[in-house]
Amino acid sequence: MSNVGQRERATQNRIVQFFQTDLGYRYLGDWQDRANNKNIEVSILIDWLKKRGVSEALINRAIRQLDTAAALGEGKKLYYANKEVYRLLRYGVKDKEGAGHLNETVWLIDWKNPEANDFAIAEEVSIKGENKKRPDIVL
User: Fold this and answer.
1) Which biological process annotations from GO are given for this protein (predicted)?
2) Pairing between strand 127-128 and 132-133?
3) How would you classify the pairing of strands 120-123 and 26-30?
4) How far apart are CA 138 and CA 135, in angstroms?
5) 3-state DSSP assignment of residue 109
């Protein structure tokens, strides 16, 4: 390994350590070879929403909206996908549990109580799409 690679690895290790020890993030691991990595970790989000008392129907609807917002293709540019995902993260997902129910807001982030959120860090998360991407660190 070259000195550049060793320095990069040492820096990455320090950053991961900082997020774990100083900021309290959960370490999810090195996901370079993990199959089916996605931009949205649905299982983590479902668990968090269930703990907050969100119904299964609203969870499914919220995840569907988030997946749709994040999806690229059919001429949709990354800028617009990011803008739509940001809107859902910032202002919540508005939907009904079913016919005859009123609209509710499903909060994907607890803005009023930030420490109630689930913070996690993973390394080398390979994402396959039009091109394969692998950021060093994903929060």
Assistant:
1) DNA restriction-modification system
2) antiparallel
3) parallel
4) 7
5) coil
